[in-house]
Design brief:
Layout (H helix, E strand, L loop, with lengths): L1 E2 L2 E2 L15 E2 L9 E10 L5 E10 L6 H7 L3 H12 L9 H6 L1 H12 L9
Antiparallel strand pairs: 1-2, 1-3, 4-5
């Protein structure tokens, strides 16, 4: 909710009151978990190019609505950029066979880097 264009408060689900002509709804944001799917191509230690499908799930924390709406211009693009910049460091040191054998550890390494907002997008 905004008052004369300035952030006033976050209206929680349920019955909310606003002053006509003074207060307005700036936007409606979802509390659901969103999923971003992308593919990344990287080169292994034995000069083989592999395409890795990546799915990132994110959601906005209730106390970070202000940051999500006013500070980030395009959260999905920023998340994609971070994932693409951070993931190539793990696979190039492995051979193709090692990549297939350790798919779970690659996924865990990516999850640990992004779980608690280490990528600057911990919304």
């Amino acid at each position: 909710m905004t008052r004369f264009g300035r952030f006033l408060r976050v209206a929680e689900p349920g019955l909310n009151w606003k002053t006509p002509y003074i207060d307005s709804v700036a936007a409606m944001m979802s509390l659901r978990v969103n999923q971003i799917t992308l593919t990344m191509e990287t080169k292994t230690k034995d000069n083989v190019f592999v395409t890795i499908p990546i799915s990132v799930q994110n959601r906005i924390r209730r106390r970070r609505f202000y940051d999500a709406f006013y500070k980030l211009s395009d959260p999905n693009a920023q998340i994609k950029s971070y994932v693409e910049a951070s993931d190539p460091g793990h696979v190039p040191g492995m051979t193709l066979d090692e990549v297939f054998a350790s798919q779970a550890s690659i996924a865990t390494a990516g999850e640990e880097r992004t779980r608690y907002g280490h990528g600057g997008f911990g919304l």
